[in-house]
Amino acid sequence: MKDIMLKIIGRQIIHEQGVDEEEDVLEFMTEGQLYEKGDSLYVMYRESEFSGMEGCTTSLKITGDKVRMKRYGASLPLDTVIEFEKGKRFEGYYDTPYGAIEMEVLTNTVENHLQESPDGRGTLAIDYHISLRGLSEGRSKLDIEIL
User: Fold this and answer.
1) Which of 41, 91, 97, 114 could bridge 122 with an S-S bond, Cβ 3.0-4.6 Å?
2) For residues 104 and 60, what is the distance between their CA atoms, to the nearest angstrom?
3) Which H helix or E strand runs over 98?
């Protein structure tokens, strides 16, 4: 297992009058770990107060252009799992400190440039639409850079 620094940028996109505009951008840096197991690359990091998920750990299992994100910890009574694969729809539950919400994710693209570098540096970009039943719908982008 290798200690790493991560730069994470999350964007929520709104679509108005035929044009995509960024609504909300969350950017932070954090320490994490990176390791390989079989044909998958794993990235793990602890969420901070800044991300709104303090006390949780996020684990990414990256296999080619498929990403499985798992978020777990004491502040969430139910683990959240989301799978991202281009053109695929994933249904599950998004757990918040206020309770679980039904969720549906449709992945537009996954661009994995992490396994191209022998020192583990690189980027992962995920573009997806998410629907949280009864609360919100929208397009989001997640960019992760290992420094």
Assistant:
1) 114
2) 18
3) none
Give residues with Cβ within 8 angstroms of 59, minimum separation 6.
42, 43, 44, 69, 70, 71, 72
Indicate left, alpha or beta for 98 from its phi (over 0: left) and psi (-120 to 50: alpha): alpha
Residues 77-116 pLDDT 10s? 677 899 999 999 999 987 766 777 889 999 999 999 986 5
Nearest alpha-carbon partner for 31 in 49, 8, 62: 8
Q: Give CA angle at 99 (51, 8), nearest 5°.
A: 20
Tokens of 36: 């390989």
d(C-alpha 143, C-alpha 43), whole Å: 13
| Average pLDDT score over residue span 33-59 | 83
Cα separations in angstroms, 45 against 31, 56, 76, 77, 100: 6, 9, 16, 19, 22
